[in-house]
Amino acid sequence: MSGLSVAELTLSHFRSHKRAAFDFDGRPVAIHGPNGAGKTNILEAISMLSPGRGLRRASMDEIARRPEALGWKIGAVLRSLHQMHEVETFSEQGSSRTVRIDGKTAAQVALGRIARVLWLVPSMDRLWIEGAEGRRRFLDRMTMSFEPSHAEVVLTYEKAMRERNRLLKDMVRDAHWYAAVEAQMARAGAAIQVNRASALTLLEEAQREAETAFPVAELSLETPDDQEPMGEDALARAFAEGRARDMAAGRTLAGPHRTDLVGIYAAKGVNASVCSTGEQKALLVSLILANARGLARDFGAPPILLLDEVAAHLDASRRAALYDEICALGAQAFMTGTGPELFQELGARAQFVEVTEIDGISKVEM
How far is CA 66 from CA 16, 91, 337, in A? Predict the structure, then answer.
């Protein structure tokens, strides 16, 4: 049984699920059913057991089941490193979400101390060909998995940058208005760079030490004009010295928010952006598995994996290899697909859940 797993899960007015309850035994979970039945909604609910806005990055009122729009609630029992934790998270009529751990209200970052959750969803298949913002978000999510406090640092930086950008757009020239907000950006920005570099090192080690059927992705960070990573003092100077240029542009042009994640298909020496669709998917799976292996060593247990429509763009041999690696890792992986035949290689190694939709309500059968 894995050292980290969801033992029980209950959903109330969450997306298409008016009410649903699950009991899991720690094995991988194969969730199958027709499109639109509510399979991904189950994965999204589990993703809310980690800090942030979940795998869809939805607002709180978007998550609530329609037409009631009463709010939503998720309850879970987590097995985590030989301990059991009761977790509740909910939102009432679009309000910011509340988290309770073992009956006590907690900050979202506290979820990262008892559970680590990774996901791979179809929208991420465009990672290598979309804009840099999506890759930064992917990088920060991996970084957060190793260092949960990274989420707070990123939020601090982004909030301070929005304030600075407002000053720039308002053509404020008084240096005193900028001093405090730039100091905050510099502190948070330096921490972001350190955290990201540390995460890439851990991923590189996890990929190097494992034999896998999936290709190795060499990762690096690039910035416009080949800007070097800067410490707190250097960042503060860069912000101060760049005010005139930034004012002309109406936005901040230097800092970790300009970083791009570059992936290279190591065996071929080519950028992931020019690889085939299947190769890009395999590189993504490789990174998720490397992230999971790194976390198993760093956290003490493999993370919970959420793999939505994971069989897409994977042939039968790679699909079987993925299932073997998940089981060897000992991770509780929740996987979705339209039919049980997509998971036949798992056999008795997995629990199977069928989801159907009847009269607009998702029905679950285990």
Answer: 8, 14, 24
Question: CA 251, CA 245: separation in Å to the nearest integer?
Answer: 9
C-alpha triplet 202, 218, 54: angle, nearest 5°: 60
Instruction: Say if CB 24 and CB 332 are below 8 A apart.
Output: yes
Rounded mean pLDDT, 33-56: 94
Q: Look up residue 146 and give its two tokens.
A: 């190793």
Instruction: Name the packing angle between helices 175-208 and 277-299 (round to 10°).
Output: 90
Every domain of the chain and the residues it spans: 1-127+277-366, 129-274
- Cα-based distances in Å from 297 to 84, 111, 290, 332: 20, 19, 11, 16
User: pLDDT, tens digit, for every residue of 269-319?
Assistant: 999 999 998 899 999 999 999 999 999 998 999 999 999 999 877 888 889
The DSSP element (H or E) to which 148 belongs, if any, is: none
Q: What is the CATH number of domain 129-274?
A: 1.20.1050.90
Q: Which of 276, 260, 287 is nearest to 315 (CA)?
A: 276
Q: For the domain 1-127+277-366, what is the CATH code?
A: 3.40.50.300
Please tell me whether residue 101 adopts helix, strand or coil conformation.
Answer: strand
Closest listed residue to residue 82, CA positions, set 235, 300, 312, 306: 300
- Burial category of 301 from C-beta neighbours within 10 Å (exposed 0-12, middle 13-18, buried 19 and up): buried
Q: pLDDT tens, 337-363?
A: 999 999 999 999 999 999 997 666 677
